[in-house]
Prior knowledge:
By secondary structure, chain A is an alpha+beta fold.
Amino acid sequence: xxxxxxxxxxxxxxxxxxxxxxxxxxxxxxxxxxxxxxxxxxxxxxxxxxxxxxxxxxxxxxxxxxxxxxxxxxxxxxxxxxxxxxxxxxxxxxxxxxxxxxxxxxxxxxxxxxxxxxxxxxxxxxxxxxxxxxxxxxxxxxxxxxxxxxxxxxxxxxxxxxxxxxxxxxxxxxxxxxxxxxxxxxxxxxxxxxxxxxxxxxxxxxxxxxxxxxxxxxxxxxxxxxxxxxxxxxxxxxxxxxxxxxxxxxxxxxxxxxxxxxxxxxxxxxxxxxxxxxxxxxxxxxxxxxxxxxxxxxxxxxxxxxxxxxxxxxxxxxxxxxxxxxxxxxxxxxxxxxxxxxxxxxxxxxxxxxxxxxxxxxxxxxxxxxxxxxxxxxxxxxxx
Amino acid sequence: xxxxxxxxxxxxxxxxxxxxxxxxxxxxxxxxxxxxxxxxxxxxxxxxxxxxxxxxxxxxxxxxxxxxxxxxxxxxxxxxxxxxxxxxxxxxxxxxxxxxxxxxxxxxxxxxxxxxxxxxxxxxxxxxxxxxxxxxxxxxxxxxxxxxxxxxxxxxxxxxxxxxxxxxxxxxxxxxxxxxxxxxxxxxxxxxxxxxxxxxxxxxxxxxxxxxxxxxxxxxxxxxxxxxxxxxxxxxxxxxxxxxx
Lengths: 384, 245
């Protein structure tokens, strides 16, 4: 027997209570795993934002369009390497629930601007050769079981085509993959020239520009230069780093980070009370046993460590199991059926999870351990 | 330097070699019951000889268990001195006192006080966790202690699988496993029937006579006290009568 096995032996008492407490910890850490994955999904644009990329939009709002002619003017500003237009298309594939971001883009410029989108060369060539061509991310292709060569109808909600009806027809010529886990593989990208030629409204207008700059350190100066160029025009601009833009976009849904933090704080505070109560109850029931430990020579500090050890072991085993189960469940995929652009357990969250496990064990066990430490041996032995 | 000599050096006391194992001088001890102060021990003096089996008798509340607690280093006197084996234990810090108990005292309780989730062998092994011994050495000590109390065959049983007498034997094995200087037993037969109680008294007597253990036993039972080599009565916080067996 070791002191560790003495701690483990304590788990043989009140097994049902132990299992129920352990399960509540497991559930809390599974919830933690899901919430960090969801937060990561909403912060996706922020975390992968290129430091050398700016977004230039209308100064009033992103739904206000900009003249397509700004592209050339932006590209003339010192420090700008390239600019490429994007627009929010907002079409529907069969059912409004089938959401995916759809953008008309200039293929070569776009792929150069976002090298994290990996498209096989032959598919890129096919896209350049096909005016109605569209490329989609792997997640979307898998979700709708799309195959190369397939014709995909998209119902317009903003931009009706010149042809009769509301459907745009695209030919699937490529499926891109992400260079990183965080890369968004839910986009539906088709050609700007085809879009421009066939849309009825908003001719010569685009939604916003993605701009690559030569030196990320000079991003504020370049952004300022862009805004100053258009300040007195009918469509003044707001240029900002891609990360800030993505954060502002995510914040339209709400401050996901704050919401997730609030939920997790509530959950872990509740779990803290549950585990603290379990340990405290266990200490109260074993007052005499703790008195025996002291009587046979365990010091106050050793009794404190023993109770804290029990609390840490409970939190460690159940919390570890919860993190493991959470990791596994998250790896099974997005429970929203790929509404979220990415869904995985972020590596950095593992450290937070482990810190929470240790913190839970220490904090929940602190008060019972201190009261066990302060027990007078004679009094404890008397409480039979 | 051994485990015990480290402790002795820390307390600054030489090891005693006289025939007196423990000496209490002018010991006073009071408790507070609400606003009332209850004087339990009133200037009590006691000499305990090495190798003797002393029975402490007296009515409830007379102070015999308090006296036992002071000898065990579980409590401290308000005034007076408690010297055990040349060590002024009333002057030790809480931590030193805990370590002193681990090395020098074996406690036997009326209700056995075994940990219900540990087997008999593991209950016996418990005090050895505090000693600098290897796993194999601890196992050897446990087997020896269980052999002394005649329970080798029940080593793997949990306390609830043992009779009261067997549980008390495990308690005694736990008390002797560290080769303690002093065995202190508080009503060791108080929860047992006569037959089991006699078995426990036989065992304590054997430990005293055959193994030379110094034993102090608190009891209400004259039949149990008759097994001791000396009986003292504690009345109103003082030793009133001395009877040699």
